[in-house]
Amino acid sequence: MDLYPLILAFPLIGLLINAVLGRRLGVRGSGAVASVAVLLSFVGAIQAFIKVRHLVALGDGEARLVVRLWEWIHVGGFSADLSLLFDPLSVVMILVVTGVGFLIHVYSIGYMSHDRDYARFFVYLNLFMLAMLLLVLGDNYLVLFVGWEGVGLCSYLLIGFWYDRMFTTKMSNAAAGKKAFIVNRVGDFGFLLALFLIFTNFHSLNFDTVFAAAAHHPAATGVMTAIGLLLLLGATGKSAQLPLFVWLPDAMAGPTPVSALIHAATMVTAGVYMVARSHILYALTPDVLTVVAWVGGLTAIFAATIACTQNDIKKVLAYSTVSQLGYMFLGLGCAAFGGGVFHVVTHAFFKALLFLGAGSVIHAMSDEQDIRRMGGLRHKLPLTFATFLIATLAIAGLPGFSGFFSKDEILAAAFSRQPALWGLGVVTAGLTSFYMFRLMFLTFFGKSRVEPERAAKLKESPPVMTVPLLILALLSIVGGLIGLPPVLGRHLLGGFLAPVFEGLHHIEGFGHAEHLSASKEWLLMGISTVAALGGFLLAWTRVHKVGDKEGLFAKSRNGFYRLLEDKYRVDEVYDLLIVRPLSKLARFCWRVVDELVIDLAVNFSGLGVRLGGELMRLFQNGRIQSYAFFMVLGLVMLLIRVLVQQG
Amino acid sequence: MTNWNVSLLAPEIVLSVCALLIMLLDPPLRRKRLAGFSESVALVGFLGALFLGLMRIGLPVDSSFGGFLIADALSTYLHILFAVIGLSVLIMSIPWLRRDGVRQTEFLVLLIFAVIGMMIMSCSAEMVTMFIGLELLSLPLYVLAGYLRNRERTIEASLKYFLLGAFASALLLMGIALQWGTYGTLHLSSVAPGSGAAPLSLPLAAAGFWLVVVGLGFKVSAVPFHFWTADVYEGSPTPVTALMSTGTKAAAMAVLLRLMSAGFAPAAIEWMPVLWWLAVLTMSVGNLMALVQANIKRMLAFSGIAHAGYLLLAICAGGTAGNAALLFYLAGYTVMNLGAFAIVGLLEGKGERFQSIYDYSGLAKRNPWLAAMMTIFLLSLAGIPATVGFMGKFFIFTETLKAGHIGLVVIALLNSLVSVYYYLRVIYLMYMKDEWGEKPVCRVPASVGILLAFTTLVTLWLGVAPNRLLDALMAAARIF
Amino acid sequence: METVLFYLFAALTLASGLMVITRRNPVASALYLVLCFFGLAGIYVLMDAYFLAAIQIAVYAGAIMVLFLFVIMLLRLEPTELPSFMNSWSKRLYVAVTLVLGGVFLGLDLMRTVNTGADSALTGEAGAIADRLFNRYLLPFEVTALLLLVAIVGAVVMARRESPKPTASMEEV
């Protein structure tokens, strides 16, 4: 039986069951319902994958399946259908989304076992899966946008899930959720504008139609550039890139499985997916593509430097996510669209593993997240330690692990396009290795700094949590084998994705990218390996060796260090430049225009005058007159306009 | 010979008969303790009007009373809309009347007459009838706004509404007089021709036109003619507020639509810049003011002003598709607003005590279903996808864009960005805050429950499958 | 001659209208209103609308104003209870805006190029008016009947003494 046309139905049914019956099922029942729903979707995704692979292997025509669900909008010259598009790109994405999503659902059963609101949690999680699948599978921009908003809403709801707790001393969890939503709306604004521009120029929002129209009759360069930049703005919001990355670190207020699923593995890669999907539009505007590359490269190094100074285990991982997303954009910007998607896949494995491992640590530590109060945990949490180590090796890019291959592909693309970007990437690789091993050493090595009462309760997490860790660890090791560099073997993923990016060959200047020579390829791999090892050694000497000495965590006097610790104070700048003026404007309208101008100017003396009789008091309370006054003022302005025009 | 086809007025006549029946029979029956008589008659009246409206779908355009009355697809659509509004407000108001122990006979009669007024406005083809319809709608509202005679706030609201409304009516009437003076005809579809000159090229005619626009602008609460809105919405009983924010706005908007897209369409170049500014002001002021409101009814009032701005956008867009977008948005706005006000009415409690948005804290725990439905209405008002609010905005914005007003669309997008904040704040309070003081348990009467389920379903359904309605509205959007 | 008379009546109407809103004594205001109606009736006569003029005087100046006066006297409003008119600059602002509005209309009128296209057949006796009302304007006429009914119901509601209910406890908490 073909399950893939029903792929959206399973999470929907799951969330409905949990919404109605969730509380009666208990945490295991509720979690099982949600997990089985996602598992079925995963099976559907595998079926779709097999079919699409078959089509790719045939190699003739287009390798895609389209499932038309229903005609959504059909008005005048505009139509948007709700059709699911299964092509190699979307199939890869849904495999990751449902596969990793399933593991995280299972893990959540253990993680949320002590929470009384588990039913709500699983409803949100399934809703997220639904929206994410919609985002990836839609065959036009409008459906993509609906999914885009949907995942944003779920993200907001899940960040604020523990709304009664404080995230930091200054910020409540709910406020963190709100921040994420509002920052994302800025991106969405750009995205919407881009959609409008696409629609006015190409008279459709359907991917095929738009890309065909754009490739054959491109609009004016300015318009194409605007579309590209606005889409990029949307992507920077969702995928936490400069300048809109500020929400992601605060999104760590949500439960850890959420951080793993939404804010590391899947939702934040939606921007990458969207840019990869729109590759034709970007290929037509090489300048915008360069902007994408620089945004990615700068974000990568920017976030990596911040990650080096953070002491909250989840914040380190959050900045690391921002940085890795930067890599993906760097890859896209260097026209390595397949490479960007490849990194999405491997990153989903190892970053989900890192977050789940961190969750396991936090769970064992009774909700302690500060690595200054950890240390020596490898004896108490052996499984968590082992899997976390594998993930660290993978993200640091040690040869053989998955992260190595995807990162290498991006760096190679950057090298052949713009060596400066490659330089940024290599430095970031070194920094990544440094902060990850720093995290590793402080958490699992050295002497225990755990508070006694927490230490007493330390024990390894239950199998329902550790089994997903083991599976993800396996994937983090071997996941890279699907995309070997040319010198080592076949690039399976690249071959699979090739039909999607076929259109690029027809665009001028986007022929086959020249392959690097084998020696250069080896050299680049060597350099990034050296960078990774350098980061490790630096962490070894600067963190592990001095690990137990006093003063390791003392505030550095170094101004730059403090700037890093304060995350470059971007939040403060935004607050000063945007948030405050806006709320001031609103307040100005209220206080000044309404109360001051109207009440004082017009009703200067009327307010305090005591008038006899209730009727008369109401009659004369002055506001009516001022209201009428403004009506007449508006009218007079209109009439004067007539007078001037006619005269 | 003039055509006196009375059957075109069937919904109005059915409603009038019901109102008269209530007035005549309620007092004697009440003495015999036959409770529920008036409600049933009113219910039957609205259902009958709805049925008659539905029956008219698809019939050819007809006119009567010497062309004073026009029965086209637009008027049919609006008749149906107003019957639904009347029905919903009736359902909302019955528990309220019982709860606060208010006399209901006159309330029902006035409600029915107000709805008749809206219907007359929607099918009048010239200005005198339109004006009298407007008055027939306004007079009952003035009284209904102050229906709770022992509460200061509602009397204040009523008085403010009355004085400013009379003022606006005077301006409107003066505009009509000037139109008459210049053109010698008041037909909406052919106000302009008469003298052979281009419409609005005569100074006095232009002045008359703008006076009419101001008078209607007052009813749709366009800035700067909106000042009454918040005070009156806040002070009026909640079902009445629901009627004002949906029915009045829809009726005045429909007249504006007839005016702009029929008689004065050739003069678009004259009124477009002004309407542009009106739309921008209305959206921006509405949204900015809504940001700082703490009373839910005031917030919804300003949000209603902002939505009036989006509707003006559609008038700027013009054309059949633009008109259809406006009518679609009107339906969506009506449904989600009715739902939101129904919930506000349920939660405010006896004596309308709980109207602060902080009273919505922790609602999700106390009353998860109400909170969920309120969330849907608010998300729809904010224009989040998969709701009718999103679809409506989407249609209006694309049509406006097609008409070439890119700046207008950008401003509107920015505005809807801002608006998310204050809608979200209520959702945030409902789901992410604990209760604020003790609240009585809110019991939902079955009738209101059905109404809420209906509005929720329509909000979602039109957000997911807007096709059929929009197709049907394309017919209504061709205005002669 | 007609022009002179027109300006005379118009001035009378305007001046007495102004007096209506500036008097502190409500009885005086009401009497000025009667004068205002007479001025209007005069203008009707100038337009050959004798029937309308008669109705204006009989219904408005006669019946309605008498009712007004009764109410005012029964309420026994003291003159001092009403504030004087020009007591603040905000009110002066109103006056200024009103004058601007008047000026604008004057300007628009001066720019008038074409004469009115209105049909001027609405003259003379009751028959013509009745014919219009019951033929051409039948629909608005009938709707006006409903409007009057609403006005009566509304007046009843507004005038009704509310059953004594505890109100203080219901107010804002």
Would you give an account of this structure?
- The complex is a heterotrimer of chains A (647), B (480) and C (173).
- Chain A is built from 25 helices and two strands.
- With 647 residues, chain A is mainly alpha-helical.
- The radius of gyration of chain A is 27 Å and the shape is globular.
- Chain B has 480 residues and is mainly alpha-helical.
- Chain B has 18 helices and two strands.
- Chain B has a two-stranded antiparallel sheet with strand order 1-2.
- The longest helix of chain B is centred in the middle third of the chain and has 32 residues.
- In chain C, α1 packs antiparallel against α2 and α2 runs antiparallel to α3.
- Chains in contact: A-B, A-C, B-C.
- At the A-B interface, β1, α4, α5, α23 and α24 of A face α6, α7, α10, α15 and α16 of B.
Descriptive terms for the model:
heterotrimer; A: 647 residues; mainly alpha; 2 strands; C: 173 residues; 0% strand; globular; disordered C terminus
Number of helices of chain A: 25
> Spans of chain A with pLDDT under 50 lasting ≥5 residues?
548-555, 597-622
- Report the structural category of chain B: mainly alpha
Q: End-to-end span of chain A in angstroms?
A: 78 Å
Number of domain units of chain B: 1
Kindly estimate the percentage of residues of chain A that lie in beta strands according to DSSP. under 5%
The residue ranges of chain B in which pLDDT falls below 50 over 5 or more consecutive positions are none
What does the main sheet of chain B amount to?
2 strands, antiparallel
Number of strands of chain B: 2
SSE succession of chain A = HEEHHHHHHHHHHHHHHHHHHHHHHHH
- The structural domain count of chain A equals 4
